Amino acid sequence: MINKIESLWESFQKEVTPLDKQADVLNLKAKYIGKKGLISEVMKGLRDASVEEKKLIGPKSNEVKKNIETSIQDKLKDIQISEMNEKLKKEKIDFSLRDSNLDLGLNSGGIHPVHQIQRSIEDIFLSMGFEVLDGPHIETEHYNFEALNIPETHPARDMQDTFWFKDKAHLLRTHTSTIQIRGMEERKAPFAFVGPGKVFRCERIDATHESCFHQLEGMMVGENINTGHLIYFMKTLLKEIFQKDMEVRLRPGYFPFVEPGFELDIRWKKPDPKDEEARHSGWLELLPCGMVHPNVLKAGGVDPDKYTGFAFGLGLDRLVMVNYKMDDIRYLHKGDLRFNSQFSHF
Ligand code: DAH
After folding, report:
1. Where are the beta strands (DSSP E) in the chain?
2. Which numeric CATH code is attached to 113-343?
3. How many Å lie between the centroid of ligand 1 and the Cα of residue 228?
4. Each residue of 288-326: pLDDT tens digit?
5. Ligand 1: distance of its center to the CA of 336 in Å?
6. Is 103 helix (H, G, I), strand (E, B) or coil?
7. pTM higher than 0.90, yes or no?
8. Which residues pair with 206 in a beta bridge?
9. Residue 275's pLDDT band (cuts 50, 70, 90)
């Protein structure tokens, strides 16, 4: 019996060598060490073997089974590698390219500071149960103006110089407030969401104005939502961003889509290079917000007799500038690598 088992090992080796398909290897495995395989077949004779022989056969058959198992695994790995090489050759993937990039001294990229701030604010709101929504850059007059309580004749349309498409029906959204309407239409109160994104205005470009910049809109609608909720969420947001309790004040502000509307200011430093101490005083206008106008709730399909809500629109570029003490918004969008690479370690 010992001889039989040994010769099975030899014939297995002969059979496995030429195989080049995984399926054939697996069939061979079954043939030798499967339940009804050749080894099991031989082991049936164990009953008739002498005690001496039995002592040797057990370990021997285990050894051969183990060898077959290992050799099967090795073979499968070999086949996998050669199949992969074959594929690479066919698809002409050139692995040397990555190294040559490194040789050229190209470094890995980073996340733009505006998007870093956007992501961290999204995280803050997600943790407070808000959803994060998206909206189209190309909008209709309805979503950008009318549904936000800004009819055609309204002087507030002049507050935002708009890029119109030739059809006069479409425009590049001038604010992320469009997401308020789209968000309301798609859900039933109560709900809360934020909507970050690019906005566009036909501005004369200078240190504080760009024709494309970023906002993050926020909205919470439910029964009995009031100004207290608005202040609580805004203070929590600012505390997370600046990593400390911020002193805030509300001033009346006018936006047609909120009533009452506010400008929320934070206590901030006014740079005064002459006086170290007095560098840290003054208020900074940061966050326009308010209680959603009933007409806007109606336009979004929400019953204003039953529900109230607050909304806010945060300027992300402004926030980055404040955070990094930048004095010119144009740095953010120039694509100058000397500027951008300062943030690439994030
Ligand atoms: N959409 C306004 C703008 O771009 C900002 C804004 C003001 C948004 C008040 C709001 C709000 O949601 O309540 O100037």
Report:
1. 131-132, 138-140, 170-172, 191-200, 212-222, 248-252, 258-267, 283-292, 308-315
2. 3.30.930.10
3. 18
4. 999 999 999 999 999 999 999 999 999 999 999 988 888
5. 30
6. helix
7. no
8. 209
9. low
**Block residue for tokens 């398909």:** 21
Domain ranges in the chain are 2-91, 113-343
85 has a pLDDT exceeding 90: no
Region of poorest pLDDT, from 53-67, 83-97, 118-132: 83-97
Q: Which residues, 6 or more positions from 300, have their beta carbon under 8 angstroms from its beta carbon?
A: 147, 180, 181, 183, 184, 185
Report the relative pairing of strands 191-200 and 170-172 from DSSP bridges: unpaired
Which of 257, 286, 310 most suits a substitution to test ligand 1, by most atoms within 8 Å of the C-beta? 257
Between the CA of 300 and the centroid of ligand 1 the distance, in Å, is 16
**Residue 215 CA, closest ligand 1 atom number:** 4
Residue 309's contacts (CB-CB under 8 Å, 6 or more residues apart) are 189, 219, 220, 221, 222, 225, 291, 292, 297, 302
One-letter amino acid of 113: P
d(CA 234, CA 238): 6
